[in-house]
Specification:
Length: 175
């Protein structure tokens, strides 16, 4: 009887041990599962963090690209403004030159008009003077004609005298 009891006790102990082992195995499995889950969660978190970092980097790159584009646009606008200012300055200079040329032309025209007026006045004065001289010299015209004839005769005589002197010199030199 005692042997039977001992065997049963042994069997019970064995069963208990088996149960304990099973429980330990289950616990170990659960722990392993928990560890795996934790690792998976950590991996997921790491992946999420990496994705977030990548997204942040992409956003930063996009922002940098946008900033660069904005800077380029600003530079282009500045260049366009400078070109427009230069064109405006050139146009203003051309307009000023045209105005100066027009003023010079007007001055030249005024000077020409003044000269024409002066010439007309001078011509009128000359005509008046000639008329007065003619009126004065008309009574003296016969006397002037006589004086002119006398001068012509004197010139002819002088010429003859000169020819005679030249002839005498030639004859004297020949002899």
């Amino acid at each position: 009887m005692l042997v039977l009891l001992l065997r049963q006790l042994q069997l019970l102990l064995l069963l208990l041990l088996l149960l304990l082992l099973l429980l330990l195995l289950l616990l170990l499995l659960l722990l392993l599962l928990l560890l795996l889950l934790l690792l998976l969660l950590l991996l997921l978190l790491l992946l999420l963090l990496l994705l977030l970092l990548l997204l942040l980097l992409l956003l930063l790159l996009l922002l940098l690209l946008l900033l660069l584009l904005l800077l380029l646009l600003l530079l282009l606008l500045l260049l366009l403004l400078l070109l427009l200012l230069l064109l405006l300055l050139l146009l203003l200079l051309l307009l000023l030159l045209l105005l100066l040329l027009l003023l010079l032309l007007l001055l030249l025209l005024l000077l020409l008009l003044l000269l024409l007026l002066l010439l007309q006045l001078l011509l009128q004065l000359l005509i008046l003077l000639l008329q007065q001289l003619l009126l004065l010299l008309l009574p003296l015209l016969p006397l002037l004609l006589l004086l002119l004839l006398l001068l012509l005769h004197i010139l002819l005589l002088l010429r003859l005298l000169l020819l005679l002197i030249i002839f005498d010199v030639i004859v004297f030199v020949n002899f």
